[in-house]
Amino acid sequence: MEKINQTDKDLSGISRLSFDYRTLVPTFSAILALLVHLLIPKSPRYTLKPMPYFTYALIAVIVVTLIFAVISLFSQRIRSKYAYKSWFIGAVLLLLNLLNIATLKLMLLPAIYFPSPDRILKVFVDDWAFILKCLGYSLRLLATGYVIGALAGMTTGILVGWSKKWSYWVNPLIKIIGPIPSTAWVPIALVSFPTSFSASAFLIALAVWFPTTVLTSSGISNVQNSFFEVSSTLGAKTLHKIFKVALPAAAPSIFVGVFNGTGASFITLMTAEMMGVKYGIGWYINWQKDMLSYSNVYAGLIVIAITFSLIITLLFKVRDRVLGWQKGVIKW
Amino acid sequence: MVELTTGSIRAENLRKEFIQPDGQKVVALNNVNVQIKAGEFVSLIGPSGCGKSTFLRLLAGLTKPDEGKFTLDGTPITGPGYERGLVFQDPTLFPWLTVYDNIAFGVKIRNVYHEKKKEVQDFIRLVGLEGFEKAYPHQLSGGMAQRVALARALVNHPKVLLLDEPFGALDAFTRMNMQDELLKIWQERGTTMVMVTHDVDEAIYLSNRIFVMSARPARIESIIEVGIGRPRERDLPDFLRLRAKILQILDFAGKREEIQYYL
């Protein structure tokens, strides 16, 4: 069976022109959505003025998916990838279609809390510059806290994992302070720091610091002793053992800590922005919620989803580079 | 490529005790006095618990004796150092480093990498790992990994190479190959070799002298001069006679231990 498939592939590789019906699934799904959107009238109870953006977006999707379908005729590599993903893309478009029906066309959901897709798209058209600015603020805050927290966490983790003395004095502190969710510190942080920015950066740093510390120190204290013995017979001194043996050996564990810290930092960022910080995407969502402008809230959520997913992807890319030596690493 | 004849070892009144978890004292080595000449190949053989690994770890400087001392070319050994390379039964390669970087580890941390770059490549060739420089340890077979471990220790030009059952985990065929390669390296470089082994044939095949050790009391029972010309054949009468003799000593040592146990 496998062999037959193999020859199939080879043949299509030679003829270079091959069609897979699946590559048209996304286009069909988008056309279906467009037809529904254009032909079914909006609910009579829907009082807002309909916007053309959903139509534009669907046309854009149709054009793009068609381009992919055409490229797929020629390129074996893109065809197999695109055909594989096609059902999923088609289903997502169908979901948008259903959402449009449920909101704009039938108004099954209260329009104020569940805006139709065209309203959400309108937010991006009207408000993109401001949203981007808010995102910039958020990323600046996140990066400040994150970098400080991760570096502090690794430093504490190394000290505690390596030295008995540090472990004796610092470990109890970690055990007491660490498990407190950093958001519980909000009242204290807001009065202890000169600006809400520095207070929030501190909270994010704290959120990243704890898991990074714990997993760095456990990673380091779990490094097998023979690595240190071998390295010392190769001429390694204490600093070599820490930085050339303990740290790389503990890297997989440190990554897990940093990864946990990343999740915690997102939570803390949003909470901080909703509670005190001016500007930022969390602040934007909260502000728009107060104004009952839910389409802006959804736009903000979409921006957050995309941004945080990109950050996690980036983290895994870094992991793949740094920890490529491990067997069987998890794919993201 | 024969190196200068440094690497003579002397053990004086060595004693090492361990405290077991139940608080009992176990004497791992007692009153050990031996000398190993520069460039000599010595094997330590004996039942488990006879202190042969302790002997090696003391020599490596990984543990300190309770009494007496080891000296290398007259200088007392106080801690581990790159002039005494160590190869374990488990290759203990650093899994985050490639074959090349594992072998270059010693020269890199000693900050002599730029002068020794060519040598790293030479040692990769010496142990037959050309083409595997960029491989990671988990991609290597047991024999290949042990070659990397050998090269990693040798690139530091140790005066003494300490081998703790280096081929114990390899299959019989790979083991014999590795023994020949080790002999080749030894003959080329003249490094003093001290090897712990369970394998009587291996000890006879490789060594100038064999220290046969006994457990309880942990001491060197007998020192055997091998004195068979090289290259050695494993089925010559001299070889077999020596084998029988060592087995007899080991058996004797084992029996006495047993009697003590039952009393």
How would you describe this structure to a colleague?
The complex is a heterodimer of chains A (332) and B (263). Chain A is mostly helical. Chain A is 78% helix and 0% strand. Chain A contains 12 helices and no strands. Chain A is flat and about 75 Å long. The relative contact order of chain A is 0.09. Chain B is an alpha/beta fold and 263 residues long. Chain B has a single domain, classed as Rossmann fold (3-Layer(aba) Sandwich). In chain B, helix 2 runs parallel beside helix 4 (142-154). Chain B starts with 8 loop residues before the first strand and ends with a helix. Chain B is 37% helix and 24% strand. The chains are: A mainly alpha (332), B alpha/beta (263). Chain A binds chain B through residues 224, 226-227, 229-237, 240, 244-245, 248-249, 251, 323, 325-327, and chain B through 60-62, 79-82, 84-86, 88, 90, 92, 94-98, 105-106, 109-110, 136-138, 152-153, 156, 162.
Structure characteristics:
heterodimer; A: 332 residues; mainly alpha; MetI-like fold; 2 domains; flat; disordered N terminus; B: 263 residues; alpha/beta; Rossmann fold; 6-stranded mixed sheet; 4-stranded antiparallel sheet; 7 helices; 37% helix
- The dominant shape of chain A is flat
Any idea of the CATH topology of the largest domain in chain A? MetI-like fold
Query: How many β strands of chain A by DSSP?
Result: 0
The fold-level CATH name of chain B is: Rossmann fold
Number of strands of chain B: 10
Q: Quick one: overall form of chain B?
A: globular
Radius of gyration of chain A: 26 Å
Relevant CATH superfamily of chain B? P-loop containing nucleotide triphosphate hydrolases
Number of helices of chain A: 12
Strand content of chain B: 15-25%
Contiguous uncertain segments of 5+ residues of chain A: 1-9
Q: What is the strand content of chain A?
A: under 5%
Biggest β-sheet strands, sense, barrel of chain A: none
